[in-house]
Amino acid sequence: MEDWIMQGTPALVLIHMQHAITDLEGRVAFLHAKATWESGIIPKQQALLKAFREKGLPVVYVNSMHPLNAVELMSPYGTFYDVIRRNKMNEVGSKDVEVLSALAPQPGEPVLGNFMFGIFSNNTGGDLKQVLADLGADTLVLCGVATGMAVMTAVIQCADMFYKVIVPSDASIDANRALHDIAMNNVIPAMALVTTTDDVIAHL
Questions:
Q1: According to the CATH classification, is domain 10-100+107-202 in 3.50.50.60?
Q2: What's this model's pTM, rounded to 2 decimal places?
Q3: For the packed helices 29-39 and 41-54, what is the interaxial angle rounded to 10 degrees?
Q4: E strand map for 70-138
């Protein structure tokens, strides 16, 4: 790809890299956990964390956290809602919402919750927009699971809010590989720079 310049102050935002979803023993591991580990995104995210921390750049985690009355709030339509109803997943304060141990946050790194898909939607533990403002971040490097749902929704939300967005394609995954490819090759590039982890690190 053509060379580019990192504009503004970047923050790394890890999306839904939590026990319930990405741990092989998680409550809904059948959704994306196998793909998470087989795809190699964990080492890529670890490399991003290391690079951001070494340069003193912000790191923020956003995990899916459902209020206790989540089932009452959800639409009766949509297959994903059925998964939530059956598994009673991601309740605030549960092990489900803990960051995957391989990517554990360091002291001072915010861990926020969102409900349901957009990272700015119904935040718990702080307001993501305000957290980013306090950190001085106006360029967001987004990665996590799942590409075709939370990650793509995050890109759209960020675009609507005029953030500059960068997505390392090798640091996110979707168990539906076709959906991952559509998101990375067709949808996300319309609103963000899609590149690699190594390329992002080289531009920090």
A1: no
A2: 0.93
A3: 70
A4: 111-114
Across residues 192-196, what is the average pLDDT? Answer: 98
Peptide bond into 74 cis (omega under 30): no
Structure tokens at 98: 């803990």
Comparing C-alpha atoms, which of 115, 72, 59, 109 is closest to residue 90?
115
Tens of pLDDT, residues 91-118:
778 888 899 999 999 999 999 999 989 9
Token digits of residue 108? 């001072």
Query: Measured over all CA atoms, what is the biggest interatomic distance in the chain, rounded to whole angstroms?
Result: 48
Distance CA 7, CA 166 (A): 11
User: Checking DSSP bridges between strand 10-15 and strand 59-64, what pairing results, if any?
Assistant: parallel
Share of the chain above pLDDT 90, in %: 75
Name the token pair of 34. Answer: 């196998």
- Judge contact between 48 and 12, C-beta under 8 A: yes
**Long-range CB contacts (within 8 A, 24+) of 24-27:** 26/96, 27/87, 27/89, 27/90, 27/96
User: How far is the C-alpha of 169 from the C-alpha of 75, rounded, in Å?
Assistant: 31
